[in-house]
Specification:
three-stranded antiparallel sheet, single chain, mainly alpha, 2 domains
Length: about 270
Amino acid sequence: MGMDSSEQINDLLDKGTDIIGGSIGGVIGFLLGGPGGAAVGELTGVLVRESLNKFLSDMASRELSIREKDRVGACARCVIDKIRAKIMSGEEVRDDGFFPRDSASTRSPSEEIFEGILLKCKNEHEEKKIHLNANIFVNIAFKSNVSIGEANHLMQIAESLTYRQLCLLSLFKIKDIEGIKLRDFNLYKTEYSISYETLSVLQEVLDLINNWGMVGTYDFENKSMGNIVESIDLITPNNLMLTEYGKRLCEILNIEEINRNEINELIDILKRYY
């Protein structure tokens, strides 16, 4: 005898334990509106529960590999846990039609974005990105100034960037705040031998600058930001800064959640002369 919808959802969420650990009790309580969700039993919680339950039921019934279920379950649990925490702390979800107030047959924006996040996590081989991808839905659910078009664009960018590039964005966000000093000259005509690791990191920085517009190079003498760099030889790490849209992506991803040890590794690489 097959599992019913609620059992399938429980099974899917439980699969995420392999990636993020922990108990699913509070998550299930929130979805069911039982003891674990009692504090969020008002309209806000109801709207979120109905929207998430509807799509989780559909996703749980799909044919997925074991690892795909792990990733989807982990992402769904991150989303539900964080939304539950925000609502319990008094925050209110957006009230502009993102979450449906009726059982209309057309898909709501929340279902569209939730599906997008889960599907991207399903195929995400860099599993450290899963909790950051989950943050996209969580933050969009509470920010009415993020349109559906921008939300889909942010998902596309986050999917395309490597985890190390997200770590680089985190580094450039805190660099000036914490007074972190990186190499203050570029590698053009340098006498130093550059390691392949350093070259690889600089290539990822170049991609963030030229292809995604997330990072720029600041000219301290002329007090201006440059948005194009011709080659990695011309990158001066200490002059790198987030662009306004780079800051926006960091905000929506809660980029500060990245482990500091991984950022420190990049700091060490971008300080080197070789």
